[in-house]
């Protein structure tokens, strides 16, 4: 079995991928986890995998950590202000250290212009994909749609009290998937062959609007939930008045407008095929959240 290194291993996605690799029979000594420090790596000590210390901001640390790696799971950085330089470091270090295959977690989008509502996220992914393709490295690009896990946050934690989903997302749809299923499909790629230089769309096989979600929650809870799609100005004013932090308003607005423009209304069977089963539907997920 090839040697696999997981970056972002102390995060949710990276940790789940490691769990799935172990569940699927990969020996712990064949898996390495990249952590920014020994302190950060403490949470991984109990699974007996190899720990490598490296920071996306420190090129030399990455070169040292990546040596001996055959397959690298490159989980995109969280710091949007530093992401471009960090990602360039990862791609160049992968090349210099002799990594055989890089699997990169990118982002689903239709609009690839700088003026996209999700431009603050998409541009770094576009450049990273370009660098990987130009590097000569074998690579696999995973274009992840929104995590279904985030939907309750978008809907709001008081939806059952207010009876309203209030987002400027129009009638367009989104094909979100569970983080755990993205992680399992990613693990399946890492332990099998034939994925070199391919792009996979990680989406659900069905897409849903917020109107659909309001209807589903109504059916699940027996409470009438309505969906209101305000203008972006009305939305930002309402959230500002409610004391929501500016950064959170920006994220909610960006994703909502992107959905209204159809950026996330992409369905594919890639995730289904890599899982070997249908992904969890949004309605099933909403039942786990709102049926109690």
From TrEMBL:
Lineage: Bacteria, Pseudomonadati, Bacteroidota, Flavobacteriia, Flavobacteriales
Domain NmrA-like, chain residue ranges per copy: 2-285
Protein's name according to its UniProt entry: SDR family oxidoreductase
SUPFAM superfamilies per UniProt: NAD(P)-binding Rossmann-fold domains
PANTHER family in UniProt: NMRA-LIKE DOMAIN-CONTAINING PROTEIN, QUINONE OXIDOREDUCTASE 2
Organism name: Flagellimonas aurea
